Amino acid sequence: MGVLVKPDRLRAGDKVATVSLSGGRAGDADMQNRYTLGKRRLEEIFGLSVVEMPNSLRGSDFLYRHPKARADDLMEALTNPAIKGIILNMGGDEGIRLLPYIDFAVIKNNPKVFLGFSDGSTFHQMFTQAGVTSFYGANVLATLAEPFALHPYTIKWIQQALFSTEPIGRIEPCEAWTPIDWTSAKPEELTWTMHEGYKVYQGTGRVTGHLMGGCGGPFRLMLGTSLLRDKGIWKDCILFLEAGMNYGSKLAGVHEMRALAAAGIFREAKALVLPRLPEDVVTDVILKVLHEEGLTDLPVFTGVEFAHSNPMTVLPIGVQAEVDCDKRTFTILESGVV
Q1: Is the pLDDT of residue 51 over 90?
Q2: List of residues 6+ apart from 212 with CB closer than 8 A
């Protein structure tokens, strides 16, 4: 894959846009307080000026019925010179519907920070196809508005990935994690679990490659589209993938993995980086499919916090990274911005 263009770094005082490209929950009445909290944290913690695009808070019903309106918001945010970055409000399951309305030349000619996860994978693939680095990390509702306080781990990696031109460096495990909470839980009601550290299930030595990946569900929706036709973008990558026990079903996880295997993605990768997963899910889903493909030496490295929980790191797509199986370290070797 050719080198992707890195966007300019964010600075305190920059204007950033929030967009609802997948789901429209940020505009629903029961989520307005949560959206306001996430916006306030962007302003108070990171010094950013947050603006909503015209359709971003129009709610689930309107945005479901008008995918072009969602795409228009992204195109407008990219072409507006006053806006320096774009942050996804939340994920969803049908961002792929925006594909007919996306002008890839607009993305290419206006490289800007784009941050989000989950169904944000669809839009990260659009940025990759346009030749621009984007950032798999916090959404407004799920992460930036986590209850009570934004976790220092999340703050650290947003600052390092989006605001600094220094190499991002070694990503250490967080001390503890908690599921995303969508209720008004009290602090003592949150369940925090100590992180057990990174694990290596197969593979040895040290490998380097450009970061590619995201959430497995959106990738299944992209199969057969222009977003996944170019196998060259996966060649020699370090593939980070949120996959496993989909919707509580190992069988669904196996189906997802087999679909990606059939697309040839795993054979192109130099290592597979996964979030925390129960050991039986790794063996019964991930390793099961890799071994069916004869990929018994592909390094499988687990425990990196980029999935649906808090806190989260930030992974810049297209940027060089290193997995050291022997030392159990994961390092991003470059900056994500210029």
Answers
A1: yes
A2: 1, 128, 233, 234, 237, 238, 239, 240, 269, 317, 318
Structure tokens at 257: 């993995």
Q: Which domain holds residue 281?
A: 176-332
Kindly state whether residues 193 and 317 are assigned to the same domain: yes
Task: Give CA–CA dist 93/40, Å, rounded.
Answer: 27
**Pairing assessment for the beta strands 329-332 and 169-170 based on DSSP bridges:** antiparallel
What CATH number does residue 299 fall under? 3.50.30.60
One domain for residues 146 and 196: no
Q: Which residue is associated with the tokens 């009570």? A: 148
CATH assignment of the domain containing 37? 3.40.50.10740
| 333 — pLDDT class (breaks 50, 70, 90) | very high
236 and 268 Cβ atoms separated by less than 8 Å: yes
User: Cα separation of 134 and 268, whole Å?
Assistant: 21
Q: Which of 138, 166, 194 is the last residue of a domain?
A: 166
What pLDDT score does 186 carry?
77
Pick from 124, 143, 166: which residue ends a domain?
166
Residues 23 and 161 grouped into a single domain = yes
Domain presence at residue 230: yes
Query: Of all helices (H) and strands (E), which one includes residue 209?
Result: strand 206-215
Q: Does one domain contain both 198 and 289?
A: yes
The yes-or-no verdict on residue 230 having pLDDT over 90 is no
Q: Which residue type sits at 274?
A: L
> Kind of pairing, strands 206-215 and 237-242?
parallel
> 0.70 cut: is pTM over it?
yes
Band (pLDDT 50/70/90 cuts) for residue 187 is confident
Q: Are residues 155 and 197 in the same domain?
A: no
Rounded distance, CA 286 to CA 279, Å?
10
For 239-293, what is each residue's pLDDT tens digit? 999 998 887 899 999 999 999 999 999 999 999 999 999 999 999 999 999 999 9
